[in-house]
Task: structure prediction
Amino acid sequence: MKLRHYLQFNDFSRSEYEHLLERTRWIKSQFKHYKPYYPLVDRTLAMIFEKQSTRTRLSFEAGVQQLGGSAIFLSTRDTQLGRGEPIEDTAQVLSRMVDAIMIRSNTHEDLERLAMASAVPVINGLTDKSHPCQILADLLTFEEHLGPVRGRTLAWVGDGNNVCASFIHAAGKFGFKLSIACPTVYHPDLTDLARAAEMQGQVTMTEDPRAAVRGADCVITDTWVSMGDTDHDARLAAFEAYQVDDELMDLAAKDSIFLHCLPAHRGEEVSDAVMDGPRSRIWDEAENRIHAQKSILAWCFEAI
Ligand code: CP
Ligand code: NVA
Result:
């Protein structure tokens, strides 16, 4: 039987995503109306964190509990993984004790090795290359505020990082235009750029944030220095002209919204005024992580 891993945004087809989003909206509404939904009774999720997290940990841990199951937090600092136990061996042991594994790993390769050796579903909770769970919550947020994302324009301003990569994958699946502004030296991964090039103008790249944002329905950014990046000062210098502030937001469409996966570095990639301003939907976006996580968990456990 094929395991229901969720390793990359591309793991689902468009119609599967439509189903997943519809279930996410339903799960959210059940939760908001205090209606019980416990498809994961007696199921246990192990959560491996090789890096820090607030939203991902909380949304998986609280999410699985609210679905009737339980979660166990494992950090590399406190487990034998941190002392060099091979990830494949860890996968074997976890597979005997829990029903699914979520991992936030330093490298995408670690995630893939874990999934290859695991006998239970594995979920990507962020790697150096991608953050698919985040994008599901972001698309849900976009659609709640502005309707179907198909045919709309999303502008990405800043680092061509893991979150940006998952947006490139999503643009192809959901049929939206993605306009990326980033310094050439920090462009997205070459595989993702090649994928973008295949999308015939649907994903565009520029070094000019103003050009990317003009007329966009949604402006998105992320930290200039991701976890694991070591060139802090060089990054701050390279991204200086890429702050999302009110002046930049004013170039976007009149009813445009601002999204950020968080944590934000206020005064760097985004101004306080935009973070706390009328176009910001960041708190809805953060909340939607838990609703999206629940539907991904339910899917992995074949409950939807
Ligand atoms: N957006 C996100 O994944 O946040 P955390 O790093 O807090 O999990
Ligand atoms: N790009 C950021 C995302 C954090 C959720 C990082 O990898 O640190």
